[in-house]
TrEMBL record:
The keyword Metal-binding applies. Belongs to the DNA repair enzymes AP/ExoA family. PANTHER family: AP ENDONUCLEASE, DNA-(APURINIC OR APYRIMIDINIC SITE) ENDONUCLEASE 2. Mg(2+) binds at N10, E37, D154, N156, D236, H237. Gene3D superfamilies: Endonuclease/exonuclease/phosphatase. This is exodeoxyribonuclease III. Coiled coil: none annotated. GO terms for cellular component: nucleus.
Length: 400
């Protein structure tokens, strides 16, 4: 079994916590991180994607009044997730709130997990708090019908009765009603956690949470609140880390130097060998299906194994080149080879300068022709992309 690690942390201004967050992501190896109160303006949200290599960010910043002239923003929430996640990962659009951001993680074996990062209002207005919580209520009510739902972040209220004296009681009442209405579980409640019994250091209260519905409870492997001093931190909030069990490895191997089937290199002999290799295993599998009434999922898995084994045995292989340009046609390749050949002759001739030298003249001519061929191939490729987009817009709106 593999696991998916999730982090929630109020950073109290990302500019002062950049080094801390980068170190935390490296040390905990978290796959998805909910960051609240980053205090960035909308024009600076791209900064979140530069904090740690290998992470993509979706984030929101609060609108600021015209009279606000500070160099930093207010509030803000974001979700960082690893680029290596092999699941279908997409932002949940249509959330009409600056304090809530959503991410959908979809896999074949575990279904959909909807993660909502939230930074609920910290002011004393119960109306503002109730409005944002109602938005979160609507999202949870809708998406719980399609998969597991997780709400993470700084909720600026407590789900626990013992924190009422040190937190806003009216907000806490609203949050507790929300949790009870959706039968959500949280650390400090039915979810047992390790580490301190609080997340807000100043008042020793728990206002940062992972709220999960019961469908997630069976996957929950651990929940930990990191101790004060365990990380170098400029924030007065403690990070929370949860780990979910999943059936398969959540990451794909990046920059692999493995070999892949080169289907473009096969000939009739390869095809015959491939057919002979799969005939017997498929025949045995067919007999099992007829006699044992094998499940469809098992059949699909075994067919996939048979086909992969046949391809690995008889099909020629090639390496994956991540730098291949899609417009690099045979004509471009030929012109490039000619240009390289002429350059070698020019180098062997002592690198003379001036059109009076034959090697220099031929090299410059070959280089000029290569650039023209390459430019023409690129323009042709871009035009084809535009044509495909236009055709899709007219014929297939989903593809478009």
């Amino acid at each position: 079994m593999s696991s998916l690690r999730l982090l929630a942390w109020n950073v109290r201004g990302i500019m002062s916590s950049t080094v801390c967050l980068s170190s935390l992501l490296k040390n905990t190896d978290c796959d998805v991180s909910v960051i609240s109160e980053h205090k960035l303006k909308k024009s600076s949200l791209h900064y979140l994607s530069t904090i740690e290599q290998g992470y993509t960010c979706i984030g929101k910043a609060e609108d600021l009044p015209n009279s606000y002239h500070a160099y930093h923003g207010k509030g803000g929430v974001a979700i960082l997730y690893k680029n290596t996640l092999q699941f279908s990962v997409s932002e949940i659009h249509g959330i009409n709130s600056e304090k809530i951001v959503g991410l959908q993680i979809k896999s074949k074996s575990n279904g959909s997990i909807f993660i909502f990062g939230a930074y609920l209002p910290s002011d004393d207005s119960i109306d503002n708090y109730r409005n944002e919580l109602n938005m979160l209520d609507t999202l949870v009510s809708y998406y719980c019908n399609y998969g597991s739902v997780i709400v993470a972040g700084d909720l600026n209220a407590s789900c626990r009765m013992k924190d009422r004296l040190h937190s806003n009681q009216y907000k806490s009442d609203e949050l507790q009603k929300f949790v009870k209405r959706h039968d959500m579980l949280f650390s400090g409640g039915k979810i047992k956690h390790t580490g301190p019994d609080y997340t807000f250091i100043t008042k020793k209260t728990m206002i940062d949470y992972f709220l999960v519905n019961r469908s997630v409870l069976g996957q929950l492997r651990s929940c930990e609140i990191l101790d004060e001093g365990s990380i170098s931190s400029t924030s007065d909030h403690l990070p929370i880390i949860v780990e979910l069990l999943i059936d398969n490895n959540p990451h794909r191997i990046m920059n692999s130097f493995g070999k892949f089937p080169a289907w473009h290199k096969i000939d009739d002999k390869h095809i015959r060998n491939y057919q002979e290799f799969i005939d017997v295993p498929l025949e045995l599998l067919t007999d099992r299906i007829i006699s044992d009434n094998v499940e469809v999922n098992t059949v699909n898995t075994e067919i996939e194994i048979i086909l992969h084994a046949a391809a690995d045995s008889v099909i020629p292989t090639c390496g994956f080149n991540p730098y291949t340009k899609p417009y690099w046609t045979p004509d471009v390749k030929k012109a490039h080879q000619t240009e390289r050949s002429m350059r070698k002759r020019w180098l062997a001739d002592g690198r003379p300068r001036g059109m009076s030298h034959e090697s220099y003249k031929h090299y410059k001519k070959a280089k000029y022709e290569f650039r023209n061929v390459q430019h023409a191939a690129y323009e042709q490729y871009i035009q084809k992309c535009y044509d495909d987009i236009n055709e899709a817009a007219e014929c297939d709106i989903r593809l478009f």
